[in-house]
Design brief:
The chain has helices at 15-27, 39-48, 65-79, 94-102, 114-147, 164-181, 195-201, 204-221, 250-261, 292-309; strands at residues 8-11, 33-36, 53-57, 84-89, 107-110, 184-192, 227-232, 235-242, 265-267, 270-272, 276-283, 312-316. With 323 residues, the protein is of the alpha/beta class. The strands form three sheets. A five-stranded parallel beta sheet has the order 2-1-3-4-5, with helices on both faces. A five-stranded mixed beta sheet has the order 7-8-6-11-12, sandwiched between helices. A two-stranded antiparallel sheet has the order 9-10. Helix 1 (15-27) links the parallel strand 1 and strand 2. Helix 1 packs across helix 5 (114-147), helix 2 runs parallel beside helix 3 and helix 8 packs antiparallel against helix 9 (250-261). The chain is elongated, with a radius of gyration of 23 Å.
């Protein structure tokens, strides 16, 4: 049975479509409905009173449904929540579906089948978004509980990711595994290039919001088994296993670089853009495999070059193969 209190925001610039959608939802028992005539109005409503489910037309003037989705995902990231987005369109085919899902759309309803399918999709969305937001809240509670533990030596108290000591421990373990299995260890260092300027211009609580946002975004950009740590004020590390050093390249981690540099971060004073430079340091099973501190130093020494060139710098620990 639907929960009539589930908040739903309908975004459509045509009154006819809005009337049909609203009538369909009310017939299913949903009463907590809001309407926006444009994507910009929807963003204002969503920031003020966030809806659990957003139903939006793909084609709208000024800002279309996909751009609206991108903006909503930034809001979600900043507020540790998930908005379930259903896109309405007359488009069809695999390419249209793939484009919508790639942008973060959760579901896709063709307008020709809207009256038959919309209610069932919204009912499913209600269950899914409730579970997703419950998990996000539980995870946040766990992070807050961790911050209160005495063993915070391995946890960065601000972001909830690993500390520098944690990074060195995990990197040492990764190198030992690579030594025994013959795969590659990969250390990715990400440093915010314009951090000093941001700290000069912004108060401490905004800087903390940005650092927390970086850690959240990095968790979404790396693999589940990769280890994330904060190495310094505005330097983060990702420790990963790869099958070989050929996977420890800029191409493999370009999405991380673009995820920080090309997407602004939502803060309580608005969106702020960051400039980040990166270095990838790798090592495979060779005679004289480095320890964790050596690989970290190798990566840190190369970060200056990455800052100068605005590219992703790659460096491999050079030794001779074991005889």
């Amino acid at each position: 049975m639907p929960n009539p209190d589930t908040s739903i925001l309908v975004v459509d610039d045509t009154k006819f479509s809005t009337t049909i959608i609203t009538r369909t939802l009310k017939s299913g028992g949903y009463t907590n409905l809001n309407h926006a005539d444009s994507a910009k109005e929807a963003l204002a409503i969503q920031e003020r009173t966030p809806a659990s489910i957003l139903i939006a037309d793909w084609l709208m003037p000024e800002m279309d449904g996909l751009e609206l989705t991108r903006q909503i995902r930034l809001y979600d990231e900043a507020s540790n929540r998930h908005t379930y987005i259903i896109m309405l369109t007359a488009r069809d085919g695999v390419e249209a579906l793939q484009q919508a899902f790639d942008e973060g759309v959760d579901d896709f309803v063709n307008k020709s089948a809207m009256q038959n399918q919309l209610l069932s999709r919204v009912l499913a969305a209600e269950r899914l978004v409730d579970n997703q937001n419950r998990l996000l809240r539980d995870n946040l509670q766990l992070l807050n509980a961790n911050r209160n533990l005495q063993e915070l030596i391995t946890v960065d108290p601000l972001t909830g990711c690993g500390s520098r000591d944690f990074a060195l421990q995990q990197l040492e373990t990764t190198l030992e595994h690579s030594e025994s299995r013959g795969d590659a260890s990969c250390l990715l260092l990400i440093r915010i290039s314009n951090w000093n300027l941001i700290r000069q211009k912004q108060p401490e609580h905004i800087c903390n919001e940005i650092l927390t946002g970086i850690s959240r975004r990095l968790r979404n950009l790396v693999r589940p088994l990769d280890q994330l740590a904060r190495m310094g004020d505005a330097t983060f590390a990702v420790i990963a296993h790869q099958p070989n050093v050929n996977q420890c390249t800029a191409a493999t981690y370009r999405r991380v670089h673009e995820g920080i540099n090309l997407r602004a971060f939502k803060t309580s004073i608005g969106f702020l853009s960051l400039n980040a430079h990166m270095c990838i340091a790798s090592a495979q099973r060779y005679k004289g495999t480095p320890d964790a501190k050596q690989l970290v130093k190798l990566a840190q020494d190369k970060l200056a070059k990455a800052s100068d060139t605005h590219n992703i710098c790659e460096v491999h620990y050079q030794t001779h193969k074991d005889d």
